[in-house]
Amino acid sequence: EEPLQRPKKELAATKKDRVNHCLTICENIVAQSLRNSPEFQKLLGIAMELFLLCSEDSESDVRMVADECLNKVIK
């Protein structure tokens, strides 16, 4: 008898997860305490890359949040 195989858990983040990740990263990247960090430039680059990637997402809600985050970080 073959053991029952459980379906693998989906590794892709859900729409809600992607929106929450963008918002969390945005909130932290604009925090004054992070701006004083020696790692800030590197983290800013990673955050911008993520927002640009999410701005091409198939879900319009994710694209909208990514766009808002880009605008907030740039200002």
From TrEMBL:
GO terms classed as biological process: microtubule-based transport
Gene Ontology CC: cytoplasm; nucleus
InterPro entries (alphabetical): Huntingtin (IPR000091), Huntingtin_fam (IPR028426)
Source species, domain of life: Eukaryota
Descriptive protein name: HD protein
Species assigned in the record: Hypocryptadius cinnamomeus
